[in-house]
Amino acid sequence: MYLYCLNKKTETVKIIIDMNHVWLLLGANLGNELQLFSQAIAAIESQIGVCVAQSYVYTSPPWGFSHANKFYNQALEVKTELSAESVLQACLLIEQDLGRTRKFNSGYQARIIDIDIVYYNSSIIDLEYLHIPHSLMHTRKFTLVPLSDIAPEYMHPILHKTTLQLLAECVDDATVTRLEGE
What we know:
By secondary structure, the chain is an alpha+beta fold. It has one domain (20-178): 7,8-Dihydro-6-hydroxymethylpterin-pyrophosphokinase HPPK (Alpha-Beta Plaits, 2-Layer Sandwich). Helices cover 25% and strands 29% of the residues.
């Protein structure tokens, strides 16, 4: 969205780009996770917008199913001109380009890459294919811990609690560990 401002004194026009803020969560437990995250971030910056903040990378056990490999997670804040629906489509294409094959109606499963939209501005979106804020984010430490690195005081638009408050109240007992060297 563009806003044109005319300064009558100097007779100049200033173009202001109104950017949306989207918070994403990267997840993976197959392949070279750190390399996949780097590739995903490069693709996000190419196709969605500017990444203005990145959390540390964390590891945690799989959530909702058993698997030998631990999960890696990282939260991102991105400024974009895209709509929430366009961000979703771009995320799905990036996942596909990085080798993810979605198996619908299979429940939770191991994956090479996952890109979830956690927040989009302070919007509440409830469509069949898109739920913002992410409907389970407040129940998952693997989401809240990285998100607290980059948005500790961000207010959940439905629960009216900050990320840090949600993390303090989260009953998920999974161990989420910051990756050393990050």
